[in-house]
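pipeline/complex-builder :: batch 7 item 3
reading input block
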Amino acid sequence: MRKELLEDIGEKELINRLGKFMPKDQTSDDCALIKTKNENLLINNDSLVENVHFDDITICPQDLGWKAVVSNISDLVSSGSKKTIGITISLILPEKTEWVWVEELYKGINKALKKYGGIILGGDCSKGNQKTISITALGIQGELKLSRNACSPGEIILTTGIHGLSKLGFMILNKNNFDNDIPLNKRLIKKSIEHFSRPKIYPHFLINLLKTRSNKKITRIGCTDSSDGLFQAVQDLAIASNCKAIMNYEKIPKDKDWPKGDKWDEYYFFGGEDYKLVFSLPKKWARKFSKLDRNVTEIGFFIKGDPSIEFKNKENNKLLKNTPFKHF
Amino acid sequence: MRKELLEDIGEKELINRLGKFMPKDQTSDDCALIKTKNENLLINNDSLVENVHFDDITICPQDLGWKAVVSNISDLVSSGSKKTIGITISLILPEKTEWVWVEELYKGINKALKKYGGIILGGDCSKGNQKTISITALGIQGELKLSRNACSPGEIILTTGIHGLSKLGFMILNKNNFDNDIPLNKRLIKKSIEHFSRPKIYPHFLINLLKTRSNKKITRIGCTDSSDGLFQAVQDLAIASNCKAIMNYEKIPKDKDWPKGDKWDEYYFFGGEDYKLVFSLPKKWARKFSKLDRNVTEIGFFIKGDPSIEFKNKENNKLLKNTPFKHF
């Protein structure tokens, strides 16, 4: 049987069906209502375009829905959001898209919202020749202000987890050739695909930051997420905060089966889509945080100097010659 | 000289340049901060896709930017927004797009924001093969709740202006053949093109509603905008409010030079993109409002019955057989 296509459904019925994924009080009108209780909000927008950010070969619509939500909530968390209010979803889809594709996408979206909080506030769908998912997410600002430009010389650079896995997962699913003489460990293959398809975020980041803060006068933290790769994240912090990052190659946490070699370092540093947090804290705070959560690791420090990245061991600097991932 | 293309600029520099259109405190981070003072917010999202909603022949990028903002603010106003906070802009553009196109688009966006209020809260740009402008707008909810499902039998249906002009302007610019034996009036041609290229909204709608309200117990009003045409607006109200609309053909305001005939009625009722408000009020309130503002006209009333539209003079019902504008 031929599967039902969007062009068979028609615009009104399509909007009606999309409405069923939303809470009842959010449907029928052009605008969604957001009730705020004297709290400041954070807003973020992220678009995923077919054959630029994703393709039908490497990712199924349910995983894509999950990832679209995670990438937006990750941005909110990295800016100090203490709670996700919700998201609006703007879809652009070809007429020949199967309805089941949309349904699966929304299943993934709702699974991620169930896991990390937030509701669908609104959604619309337009015709176009390239699938596009554009999500706008709203969160409530917590007690600390997190931004890229708040790092200071002397602070320790930390990250909340291992990088490169998402990139490896992508390459495995895409059947890319990657630099490897020996067969990859099965556990690492499974873990990498999981990281690519269903990335996790660190929702308790803000709570743990507050838990380990000893000096309550500090309310601003330099932070970003590693959606475009660890290198890009550190570089963004260095540029926005106008200081120099010194990275400690030996301390950077890797999966225990992660192969050695320049290519593998490249996958690690420039991979992207790992959605870990990269941030800097005063020494004492950094020690307390990495003691509280063993997945949080000190990977370097900031010093005065031109906005740039260097490794503590100069031999590792050859790594930095690679160009990070580009969309244009 | 070859004009500068997006692919010449590169992603980082592009984001940097887009940042220059924003207020200074809104740049460098992934999220924008919205300060709220214990007020409820309204959020709306609208996407414009090339060759679906616009094309390079009929509209220049500056007008397109203006229209993208206006269509979003119109939705906010129709939901009872008293003030636009700002917008986030998500662009998808082919690599071969000229930078000057983006610049012109943002000029139009900023002109509309200057006129109707609001700032650019954030923006991002991705590569894609079809130009797409997706805007999310945030407004502050005013004293009245405006929604499609709040119309009641016995209420008068009103609209804030003339319809069909935008459609006519589109047809003129697109060099479409339209049903006309005699040459069109020059003033009407100019006015129609203006309505299509730089549509205006009615920012004082809420203020005038409150000014003419005598019964302060009424806090909910049935309302929508006519972005998809007058017929669609009335139908949306009737369906959401579960009542029947009786339209008075003779009372519907037309441009004094608008030609007569079935085709012209079709352009009028199904044209779209006029961004007028269509709403219903109790009789007394309706009289007071249309007396305060002569552009606001009573065009019919709601009665109990199946959600549908009928004309008072049954002869006009043949008009309703036409299908409204569809995106899918």
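note: The mean pLDDT of chain B is 90.
queue -> next item
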